[in-house]
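Entry 14. Ran structure prediction on the chain below.
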Amino acid sequence: MKAFCLSGILLLGVVCGCSAETETRIEVERQLTESAGNSGVVIDKQDGRVLLVGSAEKQDILNGAIDTLLVENNENAIWVRIPGDDYSLVTKGDIIRYFGKGVTAVDASFPAQTEAARIEIRTPADWSEKERALLE
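Output, structure tokens:
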């Protein structure tokens, strides 16, 4: 009977331990009602622009492994120039959606480039204080 109880407790510990694993990948939700092409994970910020990809490992963002992330997301990477007020609100790891004025022009380069009239932060980055300090 003791062995049976101990086995149950051990099994419960293993199951609970596995489900407590932290999220390490940030991915844009692909919803049929929205164009996923106008959404992405912010992996870099420079000069009023943000670099978006479809998904990214949190550790790669923390380490600044932009080249690795670009290889993994080679057709889905885009630099988006965003309004100044919005730029200060965005952090690496945020999932944002951007909107253009009329037809959005995309420059033929890699990564592609465009300009947004406005953005919406869909999912704010979930960084610990220690991770946030690494990003600054």
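Confidence is low (pLDDT under 50) at residues 3-12, 14-21. Will compare against last week's run tomorrow.
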